[in-house]
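Give me structure tokens for this 443-residue protein.
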Amino acid sequence: MKNIDVVTSEKMTTENSFAKKITFQAIIIVLLAACFYLYEFYMQVAPGAMQQDLMRDFAIDATKFGLLSGCFYLSYTPLQLLAGLLLDRYSTRVILTCICTTFAFGVLLFAHASSIYMAAIARFIMGGAASCAFISVLHLTARWVPPIHFALFVGIAEMMGAIGGYGGTEHVAMLLKYFDWRTTITGFAYLGFILAILIALIVRNQPAIHKNVQTQTNNHSVWFDLKTILHNRETWTIGIYSFLIWAPILSLGLWGTEFIHLSRGLEKTVAAHTVAFMWLGVALASPVIGWFSDLIGRRCIIMTICALAGTIATIIVIFFTNISTNTLYPLMFLIGFASAGQTLSFALVKDNNSPYTNGVANGFNNMVVVAGGLLFQPLIGKILDMCWQGTTHNGVHIYSFFSYQTAFSVLAICYFVAAIVSIFFIRETRCIAVWQKQKEIHK
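Here you go.
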């Protein structure tokens, strides 16, 4: 283990390597990386708009459908740590180009899958490639954007991911009116290959004037980084909040369209449109929350408000069946707004960890964020099958409104527990890095 002087020297060197101002090149690079995050989010949530088609073509029930979608997170979740470690040490540009190409290949394989097993393998490949998507954006933002604007740019990246969630629900549902699901997904695969080419040509790892500085700060071991962040109590409390605040939106993104269709008697495209408003809420709230947090110098109070808002909105959507469609739209928007609270979890991770472990720390946090999809999407499917009353249509299981209410109850509980965690267990940093505070105290 390094002595304190060496570590402090590294921290100060890394601090000096931060960008001093936002340049046009920085904006283009960060936004292009965020475009891959948008793209992978399209494909991440797309099965929700194709539920009946996939269940029919692969002859599967709700449990297997949840597992098929969850295969994305089976690789996506554990590889977050590896993604952070790789990005701390190797070229972000090369990694982004490779994973975007691999992801597009997985999308193409899914489009041509002849069995549920091949489709599951394709989702697994997509998830593994996507594991670096958001962490890459964070990594490039930390290098190209001044620290004072970090939360804002993370919010913008979250907004783009949410636009992908919106499109993966709304646009895919619209395209399915004109094309079959295989043709639609094939088109998205070709878009991925084009994006990979653009990333290779445009993205750069960091401003040229900081290349030598970065080399000097990467001489510590992988295990030192990992051990450092795992021994930090805030890593776990922030991670728990992240998991709980994001699990509901991933579950509603997959199962919400059928639930709205069944409970309100709306057409599938209209039901998908209401669910898409949830992602619109994330898209609009993420940069606003990041900007407002930086402005007032607070993280936890905003995270608490988000969690409580999600609790109330989810309970109303699930249990109050007599609300109008016009009321349903703002409620779904509010659910998305609530989940956008996880944007600040990454700002808190940055505040609570030294710069040279940012990659692995953010990787760990993103791992627990997306673990909600890995655990809750199959869980909702399992609860639906346990409550299934034997009704089928064209060989597809049909689930009652009561079944959905029972399954979705756990989502409201997630939001409520997230509020408790943010109130009592997460330390407020006032938007100042902890290691910076400690350095000022020792002056």
